[in-house]
Amino acid sequence: MTGQALSGLLVVDLTTEIDGPYSTKLLADLGARVVKVEPLEGDPARRLGPFPTDVVDEDASALFLYLNANKESVTADITRAAGRDLIAALAARADILVENFEPGAMARYGLSFETLHSANRRLVVTSLTPFGQYGPYAQWKGPEIVRQAVGGWLIQGGLPDREPLMAGANLSLYVSGACCAGATLIAYLNARSTGEGQHVDVSAMEALITCSGQEIYKASRGQVTWTRLGHQSLPFVMMPCRDGWVGINLLFDRDWVALCELSGMTDLLGDPRFDKLAKLRLPGRAEELNGRLREWALRQEKTWLVTKAQERRIPVVYVPTMPEVMESPQHLARNFLRRVEHPAGSYVQPGPPFQLSVTPWRITRGAPTLGSSNDTIEELLSALPASTELDLKSAWEADPSRTPVEAE
Amino acid sequence: MDYPTSFAGLLSEEARETGALSGLRVLDLTKFWAGPAVTEALGNMGAQVVKVEAAHALDPWRLGGARQTVESSEDGPTYEFSSIFNAVNRNKYGLTLDLSQPRGREILRQLLVTTDLLAENYAPRVMTKFGLGYESLRQINPRLVMISLPAFGSTGPWRDYVGFAYPTEQAAGFPHFTGYTDGEPMLWGCAAGDAIAGMLGLVGVLAAINWARETGEGQHVDVSQVEALSTFLGPSMIDYSWHRRSWPRCGNADPARAPQGCYPTVGNDTWMVASAEDDEQWRALCRVLDRGDWLGRTDLVSVAGRSAARAELDAGIALWTSSREARTASEELQGAGVAAAPVMGGYDLLADPHLAARSFIEWINREHVGTLAHTGMWAKFSRTPGTIRRPAPTLGQHNRQILTELLGLSSADLAEMESNGVISTQVASSRSPLR
After folding, report:
1. What is the mean pLDDT of chain B?
2. Which residue of A has its CA nearest to B188?
3. In this predicted model, what pLDDT tens digit does every residue of B359-389 receive, in sequence order?
């Protein structure tokens, strides 16, 4: 098999739920060896579902299966000395450790960056939290809606006459995870050339602000910052057509001219209220066109509308529902929809976030059952080069995590 | 001609710089936001980024981007005032090159000899048309990593479809997950599909650089912005493949957390959010709101019961928040262990004490616009922190420095290139910057 871009990296993954596991998934899918150290009761994502039979099955949650394919599962009770010893032993041999506990937890467990780094100078430790490791909000709870509120997202979402609206599908957790993976690899590349790892403190709030626009910069200039516009009219609007939804988006004056030509509305170009794209942005102005535009769109089939608009270089696209996503000609042509065989049931999931021309992205193994690599972890620890010889045997004997696994 | 083997020592101030990625050399042909977001992150961490622009076909972000148009100013050229351009292109050197001229492409090829990463986000046909497809560029430099970020990727029937933030988000299918429960599909608030695709592109670039350092072999990173975003939809896609069911829009609610929502507070159009993530937070919420009646109700003990009573609970929470300041109320709830926060915009964030304590905001002076607030790197690196070393370049600001120091060109060469329009420091009045 061809090598993968991150073949040879060993990642110790203490993260649970969505943001951290998505970041280590990105690394695992590129060939990094990711050892997921789970609490004895497992990553809570195992119980979040959805499930193939709609009955809770800790080895079959769609969320868990998606985020944890290509990873090995080892259990360790981090609250007990033996569990911490195991994590420290893995970290002593790893390139990267990622964790998403609340700030301060790792230090309380005796696993602070300083401790781990003193045993392994090249180790990169990445901590992913809603607000970062320090600062007044560091201990605040930060679920999805809070991240969108403090990240500059919520204020821009929704209709002007209703409450601000968050983006769906746990968007901010995935964005946090993507940013976490990037920051981790930057530190890894640096450690690769210098031999020195470091601590990377990823703040979801700061990642979200970075992706929310340039609102802080604009504020410092005294400019208007974005509030919720709803995007219910041109230059950006979604419209139902005969057989589904399309998005009609206009960037340049030429887009507006081309849309008027396509839709038979060229009379508007002679109307001084509508003759320039910038005029469509005036408050309330483009709303006047909604009835006419919607009536036209409803008469068209989405394939015709998108094809004809794109021929004229107008940014018009389908807005697919999930069934339509699964039939997308572009996804099919690029082999983006990947079937994965798993004991829990065969399923289809998204493919690579980017295509690398030499080193493949691949799903080598389905998501692990809880603790399924416990039996091979000693092999892993002995096979990897160690700077210090650790007494793993006694760590294991004291490790209560062995018992529930063996009892299964 | 002889090619220089390294940037080091040539760009003298850059040679003194340290950073996690110091020594990484990036040529950046990207426009808008997806590509610039990738190179912004690399620049933050010490990479040497040269932004290559065409004076006759400006980065549309110099003109204000999709949502607003930069107003002309008497103090300088219009294209130097764009907030969105200036914010994301800091830490980059500015070089103008007309790639439609053979001489422009020749200069680019010469620069590529010592480049680690070429970033571009043209439509797929453009680079090939210029003879700058990856296969031909790797002949110049086999270690070269190249990232392309077209909306739909470099292959497939839709490869030439035009798209940017909103179309990308739409085409990935996100609007059907976003919206009020009783309403139509909606866009995210932020026009951010391209920036988010850039964050994934960054991962691809770093992985490819790792491979190049390991093996000496470069490669092409083809980011379909639509696919990059679509990787966030794994659970719903798997669920569909099992059950043929689509997930409903849930507004500000979350089936696993109730109550949760966005609530009005004192002030004009001022809001906060709150979420009871688990039973413990629910009980704490009741105590803060002094709702012993809720605590006593058996139907509200479970998240399912609270979800069923969502409307009632939301109304009760809104009653409490509407007489309070968003920040005070959020701090009170968070103090009791309940997830809450003010809904913050640019002005709130600029004054935010948490961001200040983390030194996330830095004030940087730039010609034409003065000293303005930049956001730092989204992660704190303990040994090699991110830095903002220079503002966004004015058009062609570093033409002379790059071409003389890196390629050894003479003043006469530069003058000739300037007269032929290969390089420029201003937009030629005869050619519209909007093509």
Report:
1. 93
2. A167
3. 999 999 999 999 999 999 999 999 999 999 9
Give how many domains chain A has, as a whole number.
2
Instruction: Give A262 to chain B, closest Cα distance, Å.
Output: 16
Given a cut of 60, whether residue B5 has pLDDT beyond it is: no
- Interface list for B 330-359 with A (CB within 8 A): 334, 337-347, 349-350, 353-355, 357-358
A390, amino acid identity: L
CA distance A18 to A16: 6
Q: Which CATH number fits domain B12-231+360-419: 3.40.50.20, 3.40.50.10540, 3.40.190.10, 3.40.640.10?
A: 3.40.50.10540
Q: Do B164 and A315 touch (CB under 8 A)?
A: yes
C-alpha A181: how far from chain center: 9
- Domain containing residue A272: 232-320
Of A263, A292, A320, the position where a domain reaches its end is A320
pLDDT digit string (tens) for B225-258? 999 999 999 999 999 999 999 999 999 999 899 9
B380:A205 CB<8 A: no
What gap in Å lies between CA A49 and CA A40, rounded to an integer?
A: 19
| Number of CB atoms found within 10 A of residue A89's CB | 24
Cβ atoms of A146 and A130 within 8 Å: the answer is yes
Residues of A in contact with B161 (CB under 8 A): 310, 315, 317
Q: Is the pLDDT of residue B331 over 50?
A: yes
Per the document, the length of chain A is 408
Half-sphere exposure of A344 (CA within 13 A, CB side): 32
Which site among A156, A196, A214, A342 would you substitute to test the B interface, given the most B Cβ atoms closer than 10 Å to its Cβ?
Answer: A214
Residue ranges of chain A whose pLDDT lies below 50? 387-389, 391-408
Please report residues of B whose CB lies closer than 8 A to that of A185. 203, 206-207, 210
Question: Model's pTM, two decimal places?
Answer: 0.95
At the second CATH level, the architecture of B260-350 is: 2-Layer Sandwich (3.30)
Chain A: residue whose CA lies nearest to B369:
A221
The pLDDT value given to residue B15: 53
Q: Is B252 on the interface with A (CB under 8 A)?
A: yes
Percentage helix, strand, coil, to 5, in chain A?
40, 15, 45
pLDDT tens, B99-145?
999 999 999 999 999 999 999 998 888 999 999 999 999 999 999 99
Domain assignment present for A329: no
